[in-house]
Design goal:
The chain has 189 residues and is α+β, with helices and mostly antiparallel strands. It has 4 helices and 8 strands. It has a domain of 129 residues: Alpha-Beta Complex (Peptide Deformylase), CATH 3.90.45.10. It is globular, with a radius of gyration of 16 Å. It binds nickel (II) ion (NI). The site of nickel (II) ion has 6 residues, from helix 2.
């Protein structure tokens, strides 16, 4: 296993369309995933997509801590190979996001609140899950990486985009409760 270098916004590998994985059971894919999991834990982050480690393949890893989910249950470490998202309903909501490819920055991003996603696991079998709220947000954020989309490209209110440290300080000064939100919620994915 190895900790991989993370590409930052502006690097072409983050702007392209990642290629589908031909064989999820290939040991090279297993090796890539092991390195991605180690890199994500080291960062630390809650999600990572292969293009972020300079590999233009449709592979995502994530883990959603229990304090983030609606039912307070952790979404355990999940590997998505060739994921596909289906939107359920039209509802969207805004929430703070961060990204390991935009270190120390955060912004409010509208996302669909309810999705269904399908992917292959490392055993080659496909599975399907429904996700709401923060879980749905993480999956949308990570899958966007596979299509060259970074969260600022999804933002509608760029005045909420900035450095976590500055925004938290500004919000504290303004006695705005969103301040600490920006600090705590801008977790990197
Ligand atoms: Ni990201």
């Amino acid at each position: 296993m190895a900790i991989l270098k993370i590409a930052r916004m502006g690097h072409p590998v983050l702007m392209g369309t990642a290629q589908p994985v031909q064989d999820p059971t290939d040991r090279r894919i297993h090796g890539l995933v092991a390195d991605m999991v180690e890199t994500m834990a080291d960062a630390p982050g809650i999600g990572l997509a292969a293009p972020q480690v300079h590999v233009p393949l449709r592979v995502v890893v994530f883990r959603v801590p229990g304090e983030r989910t609606e039912d307070k249950k952790e979404v355990p470490l999940t590997v998505l190979v060739n994921p596909v998202i289906e939107l359920v309903g039209d509802a969207t909501e805004e929430g703070w996001e961060g990204c390991l490819s935009l270190p120390e920055m955060t912004g409010r991003v509208p996302r669909h609140t309810h999705i269904r996603y399908r992917a292959h696991g490392l055993n080659g079998k496909s599975f399907e899950r429904e996700a709401k709220g923060y879980h749905a947000r993480v999956v949308q954020h990570e899958c966007d990486h596979l299509d060259g989309i970074l969260y600022p490209m999804r933002m509608t209110e760029l005045s909420t985009f900035g450095f976590v440290e500055e925004m938290a300080r500004a919000s504290r000064t303004a006695m705005d409760p969103a301040a600490d939100d920006a600090n705590e919620d801008g977790e990197a994915a």
